[in-house]
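Minutes, structural biology subgroup

Action item carried over from last meeting: produce the structure token record for GNAT family N-acetyltransferase (Chitinimonas viridis). EB confirmed the sequence was re-checked against the source entry. Recorded below for completeness.
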Amino acid sequence: MPTPVTIRPATPADIPTIATLADIIWRQHYPAIISMAQIDYMLAQRYNPTALLHQISGPDQWLDLALAGEQVIGFTQYYCNAPGEMKLDKLYLLPDLHGQGLGSQLLRHVVAQAQARQCTTLVLAVNKHNAKAIAAYTRNGFTVRDSVTVDIGHGYLMDDFIMVKNIG
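Output recorded by EB:
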């Protein structure tokens, strides 16, 4: 039986915790997928206090924390992408907790949030070489809709699958 998690909205006071957790997760999970230089660049770009504050307090977007007891073990960030469509932008758990069903719990939470906002589609982007995440999303009903390569600056690319799940 998966460990139950408590999921709650992040607040500005949680920003340092989110940035630290992202740093830990990315440095453990992504070196086999992207370079350390790209990891450093993307962490600085996406997990600085200004970016995180926007993700917490921006209109039609949410960042929620997953807690086991009092310990923050992961987070998810999502936003309204288009009419009827929600974009799952981030879903991260401490790597030691992978394979316990916690990611699926977070996904169910995001699906419920999307449905509450009358979204019928949940979409995400995942690195084409992130086999573990692709397998988890596939187990949870996502299918590949597209393949994209996006220039994110400084010579770095995001080489992703766009995956989608009908939640209507």
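Discussion: Residues 105 and 119 are 19 Å apart (CA to CA).
Next step: EB to file the record with the rest of the batch.
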